[in-house]
# Entry
Amino acid sequence: MPKKNRLTGAEIRSVRSPRRLHGGFFSVSISASRTGNAQFACVVSKKVAMKAVTRNLIRRRCRAVLEKSAQSTPPGVYMFLAKKDAAKATYSELAHDIETLLRNIRGAH
# Structure
């Protein structure tokens, strides 16, 4: 994912989201953009997956789906928070969930 579309750790900690949407494997927190671009973050906690390998796999899959959709997403800060079931999901299931959330976001704008 291009650097202009990623959030840094400090930016992730400072985001206070007024709006949240829920899917089967992810919740997405939405807030206003500071840069005029769509910026994304994928957060996977130890509660979701104890092993770092699994957490990184979920993050990589999330970023791969978001990279394809970054251009068509309206400007804003989107923080995807993985749910417990994401650890057992396949790539296609995660992709479908993320794309559904993004479709709902585009429909709301």
Notes: The mean pLDDT is 87.
